[in-house]
């Protein structure tokens, strides 16, 4: 039987794929054409925006690191072990992915101010540790973490699912316990996946808006991050500055993605060698 031409197949595949890629490119080009260097310089020269950039970099980094610390053991347990309630735990982990952002922020606000006897979680933390959460920068990190960690768990679970568990079984037959097999066998192989999960967690934290607005607020020079800066600039009619800040976020996200992928490729090459 004579093989048919692959041209129609590639026309359909490339055509469908280019629709999404082209849409993203057009969105970025639209932002670039709308603003100007003057708007960009004006935006990043504002003390509020500079403070927003610093707070964004700090909170995204803290939430991404926290996410990978929690996501790695949780994903390993879900991918390697069968335990009572595993299906329920797996379902709960996915809740932040489908929950409306404003609902997540409202839930955090209720949690920290829900009266339990004569105290609330917010007042207890303030009295015992001196740390205020609501409408302060820890609220930003917590709001980012709730969503970013869910993405990191999904990424890490896929990573561990692709790692052949026979090497861990062999390690245990040679005298290793589960902890040693995890740290010396599974974890080194999961390096590229951890880089990818950290990247996704950081990028997702960068774009978080709804929960931050509800739980932390958007007070300038205090709880303002880049995502809320766009909202605040638009609310005062500074559309050019808002678009400039949006492009700044796009640039930061691209830089982080490129940097993390280079690191991940380096780790992959070292692992293969």
Automatic annotation (TrEMBL):
Residues 53-258 form the ABC transmembrane type-1 domain. Coiled coil: none annotated. The chain crosses the membrane at residues 7-29, 49-79, 91-116, 136-156, 181-203, 239-263. It is a multi-pass membrane protein. One of its GO terms (molecular function) is ABC-type sulfate transporter activity. Keywords: Membrane, Sulfate transport, Transmembrane, Transmembrane helix, Transport. The complex is composed of two ATP-binding proteins (CysA), two transmembrane proteins (CysT and CysW) and a solute-binding protein (CysP). Part of the ABC transporter complex CysAWTP (TC 3.A.1.6.1) involved in sulfate/thiosulfate import. Probably responsible for the translocation of the substrate across the membrane. This is Sulfate transport system permease protein CysW. It comes from Rubripirellula reticaptiva. The lineage of its organism: Bacteria, Pseudomonadati, Planctomycetota, Planctomycetia, Pirellulales.
